[in-house]
């Protein structure tokens, strides 16, 4: 198409008329009369950004990119597309940190949500309440980054309770999936910590929704993969922020001891909620050269060689990572509380490691990893990442079939492999997010760091992992799902599929929104 041929040849003007005349979105006379016309761009830079994402494997070229300066601009665009005789697709793009083109819109319009941030006049992040008033929440634009939300709330001595490992993601982007990390077992995913939202539906209606008001849209949009509306504001729960964090890792050579201890640490039975851990994750250490990974530098250099000896001996070492927050008034009790929590755990004696860092440095721990990869030119390479939820009853099979028989044997996995459990009762089944049907399930994240050439080999391995799980009857669910056929999507949603479809018909009947997910627009 004309747009394809212009990619790679930067244009001089952002309002380059020749291409607009050829562009189906602009050709529409009615659109010419709308005031958003000046905010639509089809210049090289705008199109290049909108047709790429963190995954760097899928590239879909939109007809145009909206740089909104108000919520109204988004309403106008969606209304126009909805009422147009030939509706076109629209995708909100947060940070574009999806890996399979989920925020793209081939021949449609991508809304560059981050453009809103400069036009909020200070209202992009508004904290209400204080610790002394006893209530607090933050109203946040869907375009805002979690790091900015955290910094703004910390100024009031407050913070959200549930995060992602990496904070340079938008609120709208993570709420469209779930938003998970080591806090999820205790506080639920980020979608479980939202009180209210403003959403612009696929018909262009601005709707305020909550569990009390317009609840169908509220539950649809949370974990809704962008299918029901564009989230332009979310009201998020806050708690008083702690000051510091005890961050501990312990090593295991036995998978069942590793998972047994993880499960015991996340179970709140018998442990007072108040004294429970604030964060729990787990990871594999397989690299015989270093026990570190790109996301964090943790182990003392002097201990590297004895950890590597373990890896050489056992092939895979399993590492539990936990954190306990503390404050001035818990400064003297935190070590004792950790000791109690660790009683009876079966890590390898002598292989526990502890760090004591500030709360913000802990939450923002992945950023130094990003900087490291940026400096090595490894941040913008392809990312064939695979994230799965695995039911607890099959986690041991998963270890033998996937970790031992595929990952270890092929020896091509690079980067981070995360393995940690969460409690189903911290998720709300009315929301669109899909999880396994067991009280405890694990998240497994294969977060590869590779060069530019070998992503297809990793992708083949991903397919083999999924196929092997299927063959063995392990009912995994993909997190940040990517499927090619309607049948696969139906299987993914299972019992929720009918509701998902009904909600689509109600809130986006012309199937305009987030076509890059390829659920309803999969050809
Ligand atoms: P985008 O990729 O821009 O969009 C994602 C989807 O949401 C698209 O379909 C888009 O159309 C839609 N969308 C975007 N904004 C809105 C909106 N305002 N309203 C409605 N729909 C919208 N995830 C975790 O849960 N935990 C992690 O720890 C974690 N760590 C990560 C670390 C890195 C380095 C990366 C690259 C990703 C990580 N992710 C993690 C995945 C991340 O949560 C998702 O990729 C998320 O979609 C990224 O947000 P984004 O702002 O980049 O969204």
Number of distinct beta strands: 19
Bound molecules: flavin-adenine dinucleotide
CATH class of the largest domain: Alpha Beta
Question: What is the domain tally?
Answer: 3
Proportion of beta-strand residues: 15-25%
Q: Largest beta sheet: what is the strand line-up?
A: 5-6-10-8-9
How many distinct helices?
19
Average of per-residue pLDDT values: 91
- Sheet bearing the most strands, described? 5 strands, antiparallel
Helix content: 25-40%
Question: Which shape, going by the Cα principal axes?
Answer: globular
The CATH superfamily name of the largest domain is FAD-linked oxidases, C-terminal domain
- How far apart lie the N and C ends? 18 Å
Structural class: alpha+beta
Low-confidence stretches are 1-18
* Name given to the CATH architecture of the largest domain: 3-Layer(aba) Sandwich
What is the CATH third-level topology name of the largest domain?
Vanillyl-alcohol Oxidase, Chain A, domain 3
Structure notes:
The protein contains 19 helices and 19 strands. It has 523 residues and is of the alpha+beta class. It folds into 3 domains: 112 residues, Uridine Diphospho-n-acetylenolpyruvylglucosamine Reductase, domain 2 (2-Layer Sandwich), CATH 3.30.43.10; 121 residues, Uridine Diphospho-n-acetylenolpyruvylglucosamine Reductase, domain 3 (2-Layer Sandwich); 235 residues, FAD-linked oxidases, C-terminal domain (Vanillyl-alcohol Oxidase, Chain A, domain 3). The strands form 5 sheets. The protein has a 5-stranded antiparallel beta sheet with strand order 5-6-10-8-9. It has a 4-stranded mixed beta sheet with strand order 1-2-4-3, sandwiched between helices. It has a 4-stranded antiparallel beta sheet with strand order 13-14-12-15. α16 packs antiparallel against α17. The two termini are 18 Å apart. The N terminus is likely disordered. Bound molecules: flavin-adenine dinucleotide. The site of flavin-adenine dinucleotide has 36 residues, from β3, α8 and β10.
